[in-house]
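As agreed, record passed on underneath.
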Amino acid sequence: MKTNLLPAIKLTIVCAVIFACIYPLMIYGIAQLAPNQGKGEIIVHNGKTFYTNIAQSFTDDKYFSSRPSAVGYNASGSGGSNKGPTNPEYLAQVQARIDTFLVHNPGITAGQIPSELVTASGSGLDPHLSVEAAKVQMKRIAKHRSISEKQVEALIVEHTEKPLMGLFGTEKINILKLNIALDNLK
């Protein structure tokens, strides 16, 4: 027993020092080299501070809608609903989101709604939507802002982020940045 106990205690101490002290300090040091020292991109708009990597709630019809959040867009409580696709309560919640979307976007059918507009992400804080999810909202935005759909589409194209290195991921749009650009239109 003594031959196993002493090496186990030494290994535990070494691992604690490496993973609880050295590794976090190393990651913290690397983060200091990143823009904004690893705190994420911050935007100040109309006197309010927003983090672009955390979803915001947009309910006014003149804005693009964000992806639904299971945590009420609260960054301190990130997480999903943990309800499966056959859960009746979950299905009712998704149907209610579909019905609400259809009321606010006349002329769109349920089949045209991208699933990300009616289902929450795993973290509940996803700040991005696909290009398709933004384009399905174009008519509503143009109507409520009294601008042309071409202007709205141009903003969508301008704010589309390409996949990492052209390979990893899909095209996406940060909804906070897009909605701020809408507010900045003359």
Notes: The beta strands are 42-45, 48-51, 128-129, 160-161, 172-174. The longest strand covers residues 42-45. The mean pLDDT is 89.
